[in-house]
Amino acid sequence: MRLFAVLLGLLLCVQSLASEAPRPAKIVPLATQAVFLDIALNGSSVIAVGERGIIVRSDDQGGTWRQVPSPVDVTLTALTFVNTNVGWAVGHESTIIKTLDGGEHWQVVRYKPEEERFYLNVVFDNEEDGTVLGTDGELWTTADAGETWSLEVLAVEEWFQNHLFAFHQLDNGSAVIAAERGGVFARSAGEMDWQVVESPYPGTFFGVTELADGFLLYGMSGKVYLLNVAAAASDSHQWREIITNTDQFLLAATINSGQHALLVGRGGIVLEIDSDGKLIREQQRPNRIDITAIASDNSHVYLASMKGGIEQLRVDELFAPNNITANK
Fold it and tell me: What CA–CA distance (Å, rounded) separates 313 from 300?
């Protein structure tokens, strides 16, 4: 397939005002046992978002957790922090919320249930410039800290707008978006337009992260590929498949202190891939419960799963036999 930039619509800039007042999340005794879909580290704190708009945080490396007020009761799918003060989260019903105090309090930036769209990921380069990915190919960007948003719609083929799941940009400005049905969009350093990169397989990519000097994409059926940065937006698509020995869907990843990628997903699968793109460890957790999110710092790994709650453990414990720990 020849590379081409697909721009189905460069639509309006919209003011970040809620069309109707959302309901705040309920403060509930078992909030820390909710199902969480993303985890972020922010200074000495760990923060997670998930079902029913629930947000929890730990200020002692996962020893204890507490619920913090959330202005929405819709599922939150992703969050990110620009610095120790400013953070963003997104979710269902075209929801964007923002914190200015490190995740203790949040305010609604955008809430449009009438649009019937879900936002699936959020990335900010700094306090001003951010990107939100959504269903039906929606790529929202802001250059003024969320005061206004511009919409671009991406598609691999004109008749189908792929859901956009993940975005990653390297320091040199090259960027990749992972999408459903083999959708991969790339942008070279200094370029504005997205180009379609032919995928080596037709399934969905759920995530993309950086590994060494390239992009690591992962998704359905245990599929993991390295995409060469220099070739990401050229006619010489240099893909390398990493054999994972699993057919489980891979849903989330993090880079640990050793610059290895830790991938998790359906059936309790956990993989470790080194900086050369080699699978070095694998484990299927005994309870085989789907893992929905992972984050790591220098000493700990934090896991969210469909069991509910957040687990904290060391990397070595993650790959130890019978490595199930009690929820913290």
Answer: 5
Cα–Cα distance, 95 to 70 (Å, whole number): 12
* pLDDT at residue 326 in the model: 38
Token pair listed for 3: 């590379």
The 55-58 sheet, strands edge to edge: 36-42, 45-50, 55-58, 66-68
Amino acid at 132: V
CA–CA gap between residue 269 and residue 272 (Å, rounded): 10
Q: What integer pLDDT is reported at residue 172 of this predicted model? A: 83
Residues of the chain with pLDDT under 70: 1-19, 229-237, 322-328
**Cα dihedral 114, 306, 300, 29 sign:** positive
Are 104 and 67 in contact, with CB atoms under 8 Å apart? no
Measured CA distances, 233 to 97, 188, 193, 211, 326 (Å): 32, 6, 10, 17, 45
Q: Classify residue 306 by its DSSP letter.
A: T
Query: What's the pLDDT at 175?
Result: 92
* pTM for this predicted structure: 0.89
Cα–Cα distance for residue pair 180/128, rounded to 1 Å: 28
Q: Strand 9-15 to strand 148-153: parallel, antiparallel, or no bridges (unpaired)? A: antiparallel
C-alpha count within 13 angstroms, C-beta hemisphere, residue 283 = 18
Q: What is the pLDDT of residue 32?
A: 97
pLDDT digits (tens, 9 = 90+) for 176-188: 999 998 899 998 8
Residues 173 and 189 sit within 8 Å (Cβ to Cβ): yes
The SS3 of residue 260 is coil
Q: What is the DSSP letter of 146?
A: T
pLDDT at residue number 6:
28
CA atoms within 13 A on the CB side of 43: 13
Helix, strand or coil, per DSSP, at residue 16: coil
Q: Which pLDDT score is estimated for 230?
A: 61
